Amino acid sequence: MTNNSLQERSWWKEGIVYQIYPRSFKDTSGNGVGDLRGIIQKLDYIKSLGVTMVWLNPIYESPNDDNGYDISDYCAIMKEFGTMEDFDELLEGLHKRGMKFIMDVVVNHSSDEHEWFQQSRSSRDNSYRDYYHWWPAEKGKPNHRWSFFDENSDAWKYDEQTDSYYLHYFSQKQPDLNWENPKVRHEVYDIMKFWAEKGVDGFRLDAFQYVSKDITFPPFPEGYDVDVPSVIEYHGMGPHIHSYLKEMNEQVLSKYDVFAVSEGVGSTLQDAHDLVDEDREELQMAYHFEATDMVTTLEKCTLAQFKESFTKWDKSFAEKGWIAIYLSNHDQSRFINRYGSDKPAFKDYSAKLLNTFILSMRGTPYTYYGDELGMTNIGFTKIEQYKDIAAINGYKKAASDGEDLDHYLKKLNLLSRDNGRTPMQWDATKNAGFSNETPWLPVHKNHTTVNVLNQENDQNSVLNHFRKMVALRKDNLLLVYGEYEIIQEEHPTIYAYSRTLEDQKMLILLNFSELESSIELSNYDDSKEVLINNYSELSVDKNTITLKPYQAVVLKL
Ligand code: NOJ
User: Fold this and answer.
1) Which residues, in sequence order, are CB contacts of 541 under 8 Å at separation 6+?
2) 404: annotated active-site residue
């Protein structure tokens, strides 16, 4: 292509990411937990999707308080998942098939079982003491800091051994590392180099916006309220984040052909730009939460909010910086339940529509395992069914705050992370072909119909629609770099936009509703080529296009 797009080309912009939650993909050892050999066994399947990059949630040694996001050894593989030899074979298998590998790097915190923390907590004068944030109890209780997973939301935990409090923004078993300490930072760079030398192609930096904080821990101002933007503002994006990232870039990222994506991007568009704009020489890609954070209550977001958010981010990143495009991951419930409909009549159509959306926007698309099949929420109704620390401790907190627990359970039923972590549905057998043993989290009962085997043979399946969309994106740089323009933004049910690159143009029409909806487009005629359609027909009458419920089409203009 003679590139007249506004952006420089690069492989990680043109790639398509497939995210695998290793615990739930394929168990070969027979313990009900997925493993690396399971992923190796499924490499041809992954390749058949057309995706070009694979991101695995953490696979390091971990006591699994937060399913691997609490790491006790950064250079070892979790025993449940396999061995380093398995990892090497997996990486080679991906590379042989032309796919890249993204490593999850969790360094805002470690596990409390990491050797560094064991040392650090052992005495006040231990040489690892300042690897973490400690507050001596004789100074009184430190000022409040919020914790995501603590059952009292209190990020300070008193530790008797040295009569001090330590900081944990996540669970009590995830103490925050002290990035002010250059030794900590260099440990992290060494870890990243260890994996880069092995040949990994990218890093996803977990919760990175929190590494830099005001370590004098002053009281919060009057009127401070715990909602997500202010949590970030008052707990993260501290004064040194950019100097840390420049150092990381200089020490690691610039030395290898790798990219890094930041999970979380601060609280403003400018924060996000400051992390990833090319001239800053920090990170390469921003993974923001705005669209997924819009559905945090039983009220789903409106189409108007959805359009506004994606349009705003696209506009801001049209010329500089680069974002990820996703609607679900291991921290959310299934996308059909949040943005589509799991009613039998609409489930498959809405899954295809959402995949069409992700794969036709500017930004690097991320697909979460199972979304290529249209997997849906498991929908637990009792707290005893949950495995996720966020759900379990959140429920305890709600109980101690006297909240309406029925309402809390309803919220979990729609939104809990366990909804998106159930075993991959390979076939219709008892455990969905995931394992011969009882899986660590139950398989969804709809695996008898929603599964890979069934969908492979059906040209119109959600799976094959996903493959068609992937192929279209790979054949058309327009879908990667082309200018995005929203059409009739005020339309109540249809999300319409065009993508343009040089003399090529595509029109994407997505009916986000359970009813037929029409849109009138001036100068439209029915000679346009239909590239993608999740129905067998498209109704066009002069300038009016009528879309069936959740109909998604891509037209060549
Ligand atoms: C963000 C990860 O995506 C989430 O799963 C994890 O619980 C927290 N960071 C803590 O590491």
Assistant:
1) none
2) no
